[in-house]
Predict the 3D structure of the following.
Amino acid sequence: MRHSTARNSTVEGTRGHEVRRNGTGPDADRTAATAAAGPAEAAGPAAPFRTPDRDQDTEGPVSSGARATAGDPDARWLALLMHAAFFLLLSASLARFLMRHPGETRTPWIIALSAVLAVLHLLGPVFGSRPTPRRLTWLGVLVAVWMVLVVLAPSFAWCAVPLFYTGLRILPPRAALALVALLTVFVVAAQLRLATGFDPNLVLAPPAVAAVASAVFVHMQRQAVRQRELAARQRELIDDLLRTRRELAATERREGTLAERQRLSMEIHDTLAQGLSSQQMLLQAADRSWDTDPATARRHVLTATGIAEHNLAEARRFVHDLAPADLAEGGGLEAALRALAARETAQADAHLTVRCHVEGVPAAALPDRVQSALLRIAQGALANIAEHAEATIAALTLTHLDDRVVLDIADNGRGFSPAQQAAHPSAGVRGHGLPAMRARVQQLGGTLTIESAPGEGTVLSAAVPLPHSPAPAATEEHA
């Protein structure tokens, strides 16, 4: 037969072309962007000595200093250390004075001022950590009492070290440095009073200690500010990533819903819609021959009944797992294609003969998705042949190759121009057939090839790569 020879040569040419084009499709690389702030950006302008936590005042008698350092274990530890150092230095200075100057008239004043200084230091956290008028007044009284003590007893000068920390923690930068300079002057003056003569070490050592202590404290404060800023940026970045993930998940859900709708529409088109169309044609034929040829009309009705039973099985299968009913009956894709060919031949009532051929042996069982897609393509193609091609013979050829499986559907019908059909697709429900077949094959990474010409029949070839083999690059059509 001329068509059979043309079909065989066409199929062989298609396979050769597919083997030449065997290669992997473009890979979709996933990249992850990482954001990090550099040191210069983290530093920004000159950071203040006070941390953001200290900008929050407290209400009532609650210790605001404890609240300011509650979230930072290192700051809380440093505050406790400074409190302990202050009372230790105060006690040591008082003990030294009492041991060196027992029974002096100024002793009661020294003891009283020491007690006042201790009470003032204990009351400090009550006034909060912000530079409010109450807090500044408390700091001024504390420094004034200490200065009086240093004037009366120079041994109290070393209590200035914890006061450095208090001033740097509360005051703005310039005011804090001015206070440190003032305290340092009093310490130098007190040390010179205690010395028997002029000692350059006593003049230079206290300013050096004050400068080192201030620099270390300022550095720690700025590092804390930078860490808080970095943590805030990281939280913003994490929030952005979480929001992006939520948006991506919502997009994927929408795309999955649309894909499932498209798949269901193709399933219904290739099964129920095709069966209902066949039933309609059979019942119309039975109606036309009911009076003149009752036997033929009855045969048409019985054939329509068989189609209805098969559609019912398909509908029930949709409810369960949407797998084709022919595949659910067992026997695999080969048995399903033979059953389809026999059913289409019976439904055509000798107007169309459908033959099925299987070539090769699969190395492993085909995936369910591949079997279902190829069976649906065969159903849709045979439905188009029965309705449009006016063919008398159609052939289903399933070929198992090493790296793919190929399904060829050929007919000796009137044919058509694939290029013209692609440029001007037919309107209506029937126009869903070829796009649905192409979508099925593309979802599996395969190719759909259509070779046809007016009056020369049609050969439709669907090639699907096996899971272990690379997918073809793209779908092609040959006129």
